[in-house]
Design a protein that fits this description.
Rossmann fold; about 20% strand; globular
Length: about 150
């Protein structure tokens, strides 16, 4: 079993890149925790190819759940089903592929609520201001749950 952090998002769509940017910021610390880093970005088939049965995954992605921008949410992968009407800008979603191919994994989707999705290589000012706290919250969750 390996513990893997998978960053999902599109680098040129503003806040959609938050999962990638948070993972980049945390890479050195996560590697010290023996966590494998995978930049899936918008290529969910690539990310799926890096997942093995028995892995513990932390998938970091943007969310649009009508929450305050910068809010971090966590959902167990096992609590998600194809019936949950999962949608993704990156179709098919990584969760859909994991379920479709019957990968025997555990883990969490760590969602970070967006403010603005638009053509931009920059995060919104809202997420820039909250970036340090978002990174800290994500890191603390991963470290606290990496042995589960």
């Amino acid at each position: 079993m390996a513990v893997k952090c998978i960053a999902i998002g599109n680098r040129i769509m503003g806040d959609d890149a938050i999962g990638i940017k948070v993972t980049e910021e945390l890479t050195t610390k996560l590697i010290k925790e023996d966590i494998v880093i995978i930049y899936g970005e918008t290529d969910n088939e690539y990310a799926l190819s890096k997942i093995k049965d028995g892995d513990l995954l932390f998938i970091i992605d943007s969310t649009y759940l009508d929450l305050m921008p910068g809010t971090v949410t966590v959902t167990s992968i096992n609590d998600l089903s194809l019936k949950n009407n999962l949608t993704s800008q990156h179709q098919p979603s990584l969760i859909h592929l994991i379920k479709l191919y019957g990968k025997n994994i555990n883990g969490f989707v760590i969602g970070i609520e967006v403010d603005t999705i638009e053509f931009s290589s920059e995060l919104s000012n809202t997420l820039k201001l909250k970036f340090h706290n978002i990174c800290q919250e994500v890191y603390e969750f991963i470290v606290a749950n990496k042995n589960k």
